Amino acid sequence: MKGMEALSVLDIAQLENVTMNDADLMREVVGALLSDAGRQIESLLQAIDRADTRECKRLAHGLVGACGNVGAVSLAAVSSSLEQYATVGDVDLCRSSVERLTIEVERLRTAASSL
């Protein structure tokens, strides 16, 4: 996941597009994503503990789509990497990706505080 720091945390233009530039809706949409991502991370950790890479792939795929829709660029990239690692059955890389997801969620939370 080299170069992840260079990725934008939040594509404001994408977020404005999906929310029709409504500031309240932007905060609501990002807040919902943050809440959902927290739940998904818990589910991912449980799946990893069971070595259930199929479930990891399913959960990561959902995060890729949700993040992409609202412009959470770096979170989408980490989720995409996680999905790929799950596809090949690499539980260790899945675990490290979930650790990175946690960091990216906090970066998004920080970025969202200025909306």
Question: Your description of this structure?
Answer:
This protein is mainly alpha-helical and about 120 residues long. It has one domain (about 5-110): Four Helix Bundle (Hemerythrin (Met), subunit A) (Up-down Bundle). Helix content is about 80%, strand content about 0%. It has five helices and no strands. It has helices at about 10-20, 25-50, 55-70, 75-85, 90-110. Helix 3 packs antiparallel against helix 4 (about 75-85). It is elongated, with a radius of gyration of 14 Å. About 30% of the residues are buried. Mean pLDDT is about 95; it is low at about 1-5.
Largest sheet: none
Principal-axes geometry comes out as elongated
Q: Give the tally of structural domains.
A: 1
Radius of gyration: 14 Å
CATH topology: Four Helix Bundle (Hemerythrin (Met), subunit A)
Distance between the termini: 27 Å
Share in β-strands? under 5%
DSSP strand tally: 0
Name the poorly predicted regions: 1-5
Helix/strand/pairing category: mainly alpha
What can be said about this structure in brief?
This protein has 115 residues and is mainly alpha-helical. The chain has helices at residues 12-19, 23-49, 53-70, 73-87, 91-112.
